[in-house]
Specification:
This protein is of the alpha/beta class and 299 residues long. The chain folds into 2 domains: 98 residues, Rossmann fold (3-Layer(aba) Sandwich), CATH 3.40.50.10950; 200 residues, Isopropylmalate Dehydrogenase, CATH 3.40.718. Helices cover 40% and strands 16% of the residues. The strands form 2 sheets. It has a 6-stranded mixed β-sheet with strand order 8-7-9-6-5-10, with helices on both faces. Helix 6 links the parallel strand 7 and strand 8.
Length: 299
């Protein structure tokens, strides 16, 4: 995993935690002197890691992406640089690692009050996605769910209400996405929408509102209307509901771990674990045997 500019404590400590867990073999890309000094301050042994010296964050992002293009890294991680700086290099037409698929972000969340992993998309990349963007956002999330062992994920396309109305464009997008799935334009998942958040995750709310759907009340994936809604939802679950979150960017040639300065080392390691599952899933021809779709008894 190429780690671009790991020059603060969360990014370097998180990388080291993932490496100690046997998840990744890091390639640290950035100013060598600064990285070594930080490692010494934090008492982290980076002697066994490959270190690629680059003078500043922009150069580190460029070189980290180049390592992926050259086949020297199977995944990419953001260090202590701005997300836009890394994604600009990822998206470059001639030297980046984009594909024909729209790039999107997925949070994989462990919410204490919910019985299974919950995927939320997109809360970090696409600000105001179009219908076509949302179709790719859904496809990316479904493929991630497959990598997690959820063979037919239930996809709830969210809005503020569960009825289609021209006054809320997100309800029209939700209905269109469901029809696209009916016509085979989106494969591998079971879609329903529009659904309000309570209808998506609460069987009791569905019973009260008389919503009969195999997705409603039991969603694996929540597709939000826009980045603002998704970002607030993910942070509310993290800071108010005690949820743990791992974040991954999909749609590029390799999975990309997008970290936050507020993330713990454990959160970094969890995101790396998701990236490993994605890369392994692709390498195995989309035949991942582990079933993580249901929380085991006891937590």
């Amino acid at each position: 995993m190429a780690v671009a500019h790991p020059c603060d404590e969360p990014s370097l400590a998180g990388t080291a935690a993932a490496a100690r867990a046997g998840l990744i073999e890091p390639i640290l890309v950035g100013p060598e002197g600064r990285i070594r000094a930080l490692a010494s301050t934090l008492d982290i042994d980076i002697g066994g890691y490959r270190l690629v010296d680059q003078p500043h964050s922009h150069a580190a992002a460029e070189r980290a992406v180049a390592l992926v293009r050259a086949g020297e890294a199977a995944a990419l991680m953001k260090g202590s640089l701005h997300t836009d700086e890394l994604m600009e290099e990822v998206m470059r037409k001639e030297t980046g690692i984009r594909t024909g698929r729209r790039i999107s972000h997925v949070f994989v969340m462990d919410v204490p009050s919910y019985p299974k992993p919950l995927l939320i998309t997109d809360a970090a990349i696409n600000i105001a996605p179009t219908l076509d963007d949302k179709a790719d956002i859904v496809r990316n999330a479904i493929e991630l769910a497959h990598a997690l062992g959820i063979s037919r994920p239930k996809v709830a396309v969210l809005s503020a209400v569960e009825t289609v109305t021209s006054r809320l464009p997100s309800t029209i997008d939700a209905a269109a996405l469901c029809k696209m799935a009916d016509r085979g334009q989106i494969l591998g998942g079971l879609l329903d929408g529009p659904l309000a958040l309570d209808n998506a995750i609460s069987r009791e709310a569905c019973a009260i509102k008389q919503i009969d759907s195999p997705v409603a009340g039991d969603a694996d994936i929540l597709v939000v209307p826009d980045l603002e809604a998704g970002n607030m939802l993910a942070k509310e679950l993290t800071f108010l509901a005690g949820a743990d979150a791992a974040g991954i960017v999909l749609g590029a040639r390799v999975p990309i771990v997008l970290t936050s300065r507020a993330d713990s080392a454990d959160a970094h390691a969890a995101s790396c674990a998701i990236a490993v599952l994605c890369a392994s899933h692709a390498a195995r021809g989309f035949d991942w045997p582990v079933d993580l779709g249901q929380r085991p008894a006891g937590g």
